[in-house]
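Fold this complex.
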Amino acid sequence: QVQLQQWGAGLLKPSETLSLTCAVYGGSYSAYYWSWVRQAPGKGLEWIGEINLSGGTNYFPSLKSRVTISLDTSKNQCSLRLSSVTAADTAVYYCTRSKFGLSSEKFEYWSQGTLVTVSS
Amino acid sequence: QSVLTQPPSASGTPGQRVTISCSGSSSNIGINPVNWFRQFPGTAPKLLIHGNNQRPSGVPDRFSGSKSGTSASLAISGLQSEDEADYYCAAWDDRFWVFGGGTKLTVL
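Structure:
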């Protein structure tokens, strides 16, 4: 049974850096890639970015200048950093796992999510 | 405003068949597979359909997906009260993923 568990600070001040880490338990680590998705209160899902096992990344254009996604393969962990946060970044942040292949299972597994609130 | 367009709400009665639409463009749905998710309040989304019409293991065959051109649909047959949730579509668009704004399904 695959489980994704994440942790990180839930309350930030404007201009600070959001930092979240996600660990995977169970299943094969190297056959998948990782994404981060967020959901503002009462709103829909927004993709933040992804990283593959080679460390290659893609980011959502409007967030690209502030986002860094990284992998620690020795610990089976994926991390998200979002700099210069504002109130608009307040959201529940999820890490997810997807299989490779255009028609394969995408965002197949999700973490429990972390509510990150940005407030002065 | 989401790149993929979904109706904000849909409804049906138990046993009925309902469909939820997802409209995109030639850069996303027009050339890439569509995925569908269900989300209950306060919980993480769950994958229902991938590759336009494929169900992951454990998803009932009451759920089906289809695609035509730059639009896709999720159909739920034999509607049940526990199907009341938010539903999202998603597709790859050039170098990033895009989601629909979500459809709140109410079972009357």
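The interface with chain B takes residues 35, 44-47, 49-50, 58-61, 94, 102-108, 110-113 of chain A (CB under 8 Å).
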